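anyone seen this seq b4? input:
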Amino acid sequence: MATLRFAKLHGTANDFIYVDAREGFPGDPAALAPRLCDRRRGIGADGLILLETAAGSDADCRMVVYNADGSRAEMCGNGIRGLAKFVHDRGLVHADPLRVETDAGVKTLHTELNGHGRVARVTVDMGVPVWDGPSIPVAADGEIIERPLDVDGERYAVTCVSMGNPHCVVFTDDIAGLPLHAIGPRFARHRFFPRGVNTEFVRVAGRDRLAMRVWERGAGETMSCGTGACAAAVAAARTGRTGRRVIVALPGGELEINWRPDDRVLMTGEAVDVFDGHVEV
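predicted toks r here
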């Protein structure tokens, strides 16, 4: 048995377990993540995030993300904001802006501090949206913009984009009554998505406002998804439903998304400490 020290943080109620793994991790994190993330028998979280030493010289640290089921995610928008607070408030990494190496490339983060010198909000440069089908990836060439897709006998108009991980955006007038726990897994397992997919069901609430629910591969329905909010925002702007700056309202809170003229997407939102602790593993 080993003692694992951790912190739990959330961003718009999308919660994660953070571990400083720069000097190693006790065991296989993919195998341990389901136990730690279990909300009845473990700490409880949507995922496990490891702080590691960056492999390249152009980053200050590295983030590795495991979903609650143990699968590995390329990128996590809410999780990377939490990482910025995790390292800043605990004095683990000293850099501003902070450059974080991920499986989806290096991301640059700017922090906003509260009156006590602790991180309150974080803006993340999420990079540029990827529209090319095989690069998302989906099982089709070209762009997937409001394309009909049959999912278990139902037809949906889908817009697909990668924001570091694959997303499928569906616009609908009713998200509150959507049986997401039935529909979400059907999208995640669909053969059109060779590496699975995060699916956003989005209602347009105005030219500068969206409401969204999300089903994440490897985690199920979550209270928020940062990359998903970015995907919803660029899909809404690309299809003429909104402008390029929007507020995305999720069950866990709101995120500000700015799709800049240079094609880069900025995401701004909260980062909140929950508690620190240790567990025997």
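The mean pLDDT is 97. The helical segments are 29-37, 77-89, 180-188, 226-238. kinda curious what u guys think
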